[in-house]
């Protein structure tokens, strides 16, 4: 029986290989030939068998490139004929008919001349075609390549939570979606911005164009998801309250796929603020019930407080596990002056920098076009556009799948930071850029074959001292976390000057996340009351082991030395993640040693 099994297995395997071979091999009329006898001998042999010698192959000595004009240019079979006797000639060491290989030519495919668009600002969209020879950006976000794979955001709905959207803008009107729009400030269905002399309310319209400006309409620019539907929620032009925010975050969660927000608490370097109870619930409802249970996707700008020494961990919106926090880099891969550092940032796009760095072109108020859009405000809509492409590739991915895809596909590229490190799961990560520059093509490719991750488990451990030994809730099956996603640290710290504190978390695998850096302007004596810090730097690592919270206090001049320092009262670690692990690569999966299945998509194995 054992022998029969082996035979059957062999049969299945060889059938598969034959099938694959006949499907994928394309033979050309080019040969590589190794002839030790020198160039004139090569010429003789070429003419003897009817080839043309095209000369040595690059720097490879004795290797020649032969071409045969009477052999079919592309064939699925090895071509036979008198020419094939060259393989048996004693003066020939080795000869090989060349096969067509499947290679994605990222640069050639991304050549802007390859795509002809008549939008007048197309040539100024450097961040989309930065493979240009004279471009200063060196790494692609591979947006063109994603388009060329056929993804343009069709049937995906994005809305911009901001100061309104100019819905009749000629570059937006075709993609504008009334059902994805609302005016929370005016309490009506028309989110048209309020016009004033300073054009204060231009922000939302600028963000909307980045996502879904119409392509090839002889107007302005091309949106990253230029066939997506775009809406606007007008909510920043008035008093922003918990109600306003909660309403905005919860508008038509079954209709709108992606909410993009480029705003948050003051970036003054001294504020610690986050969503109130209603907005918190709106986030939770969105991820649980939105998109018919797959979860709303909230994309968030990490903040513009770099110059004020602000730290994005003090912004509870960007710090939330429910938001995809996005950072920015300049065209040269330098840290922009406005960038805020923190451990919750997931990914990065290009944006503005110093005055000589290029800015972003997009739609502007009063039916115009601008080349001056800047800051992390640029980056959230760009990622919203990229996610729209991924959702077109696979509409069934969940809110957590989207984060997994960004972790997996974003790249360090040429982004400069002195803290790039590889975590224990092999992901490169930085406090400036998260997992790096987004890659639209990799996003659509991975999304297409993605299998949804198992349910989220949360395991909570609480201690009074600064070190927690966690089992990852091994004894509670519905909470057990083996592989990590987000880690949330909740602290109660009483302290005379909050800006003097620096907090780090060290994972059981030794990955250090800086949860808070000192803030020069933060003189508050309020400390942190149940504040949640979040890190994504341990993504994919194992949860079990010792978690250490390190708090350092560097008393500044500004502090009253009479006030005693009262330390950490408690801290809690929420380990978010999954019970099982995902294997991404293709492999053979054998059941009972008989039936072998070639698994192309990701396959889940229980631990
Ligand atoms: Ca209105
Ligand atoms: Ca256009
Ligand atoms: Ca901030
Ligand atoms: Ca976040």
From TrEMBL:
The active site is at residues 162, 203, 377. Residues 1-23 form the signal peptide. Coiled coil: none annotated. Residues 452-581 form the P/Homo B domain. It comes from the Eukaryota. One of its GO terms (molecular function) is serine-type endopeptidase activity. The chain crosses the membrane at residues 582-606. One of its GO terms (cellular component) is extracellular space. InterPro entries: Galactose-bd-like_sf, Kexin/furin, P_dom, Peptidase_S8/S53_dom, Peptidase_S8/S53_dom_sf, Peptidase_S8_Asp-AS, Peptidase_S8_His-AS, Peptidase_S8_Ser-AS. GO terms for biological process: peptide hormone processing. The keyword Hydrolase applies. Keywords: Cleavage on pair of basic residues, Glycoprotein, Hydrolase, Membrane, Protease, Repeat, Serine protease, Signal, Transmembrane, Transmembrane helix, Zymogen. It holds the Pfam family Peptidase_S8. Belongs to the peptidase S8 family. PANTHER family: PROPROTEIN CONVERTASE SUBTILISIN/KEXIN-RELATED, PROPROTEIN CONVERTASE SUBTILISIN_KEXIN TYPE 6. This is Proprotein convertase subtilisin/kexin type 6. It comes from Cyprinus carpio carpio. The lineage of its organism: Eukaryota, Metazoa, Chordata, Craniata, Vertebrata.
């Amino acid at each position: 029986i054992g022998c029969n099994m082996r035979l059957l297995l062999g049969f299945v395997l060889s059938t598969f290989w034959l099938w694959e071979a006949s499907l994928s091999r394309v033979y050309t009329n080019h040969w590589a030939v190794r002839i030790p006898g020198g160039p004139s001998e090569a010429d003789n042999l070429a003419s003897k068998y009817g080839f043309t010698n095209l000369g040595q192959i690059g720097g490879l000595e004795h290797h020649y490139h032969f071409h045969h004009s009477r052999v079919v240019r592309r064939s699925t079979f090895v071509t036979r004929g008198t020419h094939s006797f060259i393989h048996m000639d004693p003066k020939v060491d080795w000869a090989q008919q060349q096969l067509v290989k499947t290679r994605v030519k990222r640069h050639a495919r991304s050549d802007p001349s390859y795509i002809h668009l008549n939008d007048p600002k197309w040539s100024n969209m450097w961040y989309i075609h930065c493979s240009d020879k004279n471009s200063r950006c060196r790494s692609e976000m591979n947006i063109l390549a994603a388009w060329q794979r056929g993804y343009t955001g069709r049937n995906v709905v994005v809305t911009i939570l901001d100061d309104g959207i100019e819905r009749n803008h000629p570059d937006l009107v075709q993609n504008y979606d009334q059902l994805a729009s609302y005016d929370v400030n005016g309490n009506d269905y028309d989110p048209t911005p309020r016009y004033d002399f300073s054009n204060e309310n231009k922000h939302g319209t600028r963000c909307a164009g980045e996502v879904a400006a119409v392509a090839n309409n002889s107007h302005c620019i091309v949106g990253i998801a230029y066939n997506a539907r775009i809406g606007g929620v007008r909510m920043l032009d008035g008093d922003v309250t918990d109600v306003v925010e909660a309403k905005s975050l919860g508008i038509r969660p079954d209709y709108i796929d992606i909410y993009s927000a480029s705003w948050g608490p003051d970036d003054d370097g001294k504020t610690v603020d986050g969503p109130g109870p209603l907005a918190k619930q709106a986030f939770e409802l969105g991820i649980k019930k939105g998109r018919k249970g797959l979860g709303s996707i909230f994309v968030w700008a990490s903040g513009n407080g770099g110059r004020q020494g602000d730290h994005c961990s003090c912004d509870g919106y960007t710090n939330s596990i429910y938001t995809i926090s996005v950072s920015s880099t300049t065209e040269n891969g330098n840290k922009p002056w406005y960038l805020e550092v923190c451990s919750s940032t997931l990914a990065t796009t290009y944006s503005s920098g110093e005055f000589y760095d290029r800015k972003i072109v997009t739609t502007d108020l009063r039916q115009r076009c601008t080349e001056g859009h800047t800051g992390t405000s640029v980056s959230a809509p760009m990622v919203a556009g990229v996610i729209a492409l991924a959702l077109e590739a696979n509409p069934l991915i969940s809110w957590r799948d989207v984060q997994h895809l960004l972790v997996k596909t974003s790249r360090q590229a040429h982004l400069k930071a002195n803290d790039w490190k590889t975590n224990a799961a092999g992901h490169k990560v930085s406090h400036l850029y998260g997992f790096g520059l987004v890659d639209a093509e990799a996003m659509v490719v991975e999304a297409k074959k993605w299998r949804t991750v198992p349910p989220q488990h949360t395991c909570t451990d609480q201690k009074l001292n600064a070190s927690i030994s966690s089992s990852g809730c091994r004894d509670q099956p519905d909470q057990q976390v083996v592989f990590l996603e987000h880690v949330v640290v909740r602290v109660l710290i009483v302290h005379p000057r909050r800006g003097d504190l620096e907090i780090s978390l060290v994972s059981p695998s030794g990955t250090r996340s800086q949860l808070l850096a000192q803030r020069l302007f933060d003189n508050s004596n309020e400390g942190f009351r149940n504040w949640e810090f979040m890190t994504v730097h341990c993504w994919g690592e194992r949860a079990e082991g010792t978690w250490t919270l390190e708090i350092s206090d560097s008393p500044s001049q500004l502090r009253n030395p009479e006030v005693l320092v009262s330390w950490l009262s408690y801290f809690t670690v929420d380990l978010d993640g999954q019970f099982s692990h995902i294997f991404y690569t293709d492999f053979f999966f054998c059941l009972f040693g008989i039936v072998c299945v070639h698994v192309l998509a990701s396959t889940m194995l229980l631990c």
